[in-house]
Every structure is written in C-alpha cells, then in structure tokens.
Automatic annotation (TrEMBL):
Keywords: Isomerase, Rotamase. Its EC number is 5.2.1.8. It comes from Dictyostelium purpureum (Slime mold). This is peptidylprolyl isomerase. GO terms for molecular function: peptidyl-prolyl cis-trans isomerase activity. Residues 21-109 form the PPIase FKBP-type domain. It comes from the Eukaryota. Pfam families: FKBP_C (PF00254).
Length: 126
C-alpha cells in the first residue's frame, strides 16, 4: 500500500534476515518530512527491541527491519499509518505525519524460538 519505502544506502554483509522474536540492535535518526530531527539514537548507544513485539517503537520498523541484513543502512519513508498515526508523538511528531528514518541494523540474535509453545523446543539458527 506504499506505506513504507526503503532506499538502501549501504548493503549488509550477510545473507540472512531477522525474524519476529529476534532481538535487534539498531542505530537510527528519525525526522519529520520537513527534515526536523525528533530522535537521534546515533548520539546515544544502540537501541534494541524484540522484533514483532507489542513494545516495538512503530509498526513500520517491524516490516522494514525484517528486510534488512546485518550492517545495512537504509533510509525509510514511513507514512503515518505505520508510524505514529493520527495521534502523533507528543510535541515531537505531529498527527498524521510521514516520518523519515535512517536505520542501521547493527546486529540481531541468531536464535529464535519458533515453537508454538515458545518453550525452546524448536529454534531457528543461522
């Protein structure tokens, strides 16, 4: 639905991609469409979260990061539907705003519990 577009700036160095349930570590800079930076994780240490979890930063990260390889740096244009929606993000991102992110996938875990029971009986490994 053209809600997310991606331009690869630097290709990644592996052939596998992260999946839901993987712990991912990223650097990113978030901007509004006019170029105003609202968050810069590059100035801090890396940011991590479980891909596909309800606590992920925005829905667009889930889709985009699953298409990235370790070491890849991409510029993502994420429409409001996949970013902060009609609510926005306080004073940082207005309602219905398209956001631009430059994301670097630093790393992700190579083990993921894919068992139905989430009991570690089936792990994906690379």
């Amino acid at each position: 639905d053209n809600g997310i577009s991606k331009i690869i700036k630097t290709s990644g160095n592996r052939t596998n991609f992260p999946f839901d349930g993987d712990q991912v570590y990223i650097h990113f800079i978030g901007k509004t469409i006019d170029g105003t930076i609202f968050e810069n994780i590059r100035e801090k240490s890396s940011f991590s979260f479980i891909l596909g979890s309800p606590e992920e930063p925005i829905k667009g990260f889930n889709y985009a990061i699953k298409s990235m390889k370790k070491g890849e740096i991409s510029t993502l244009t994420i429409r409001a539907k996949y970013a902060y929606g009609s609510v926005g993000n306080g004073d940082l991102v207005p309602p219905n705003a398209t956001c631009i992110y430059e994301i670097e996938l630093i790393s992700f875990n190579n083990n993921c519990d894919i068992s139905t029971e989430k009991d570690g009986s089936i792990l994906k490994k690379f």
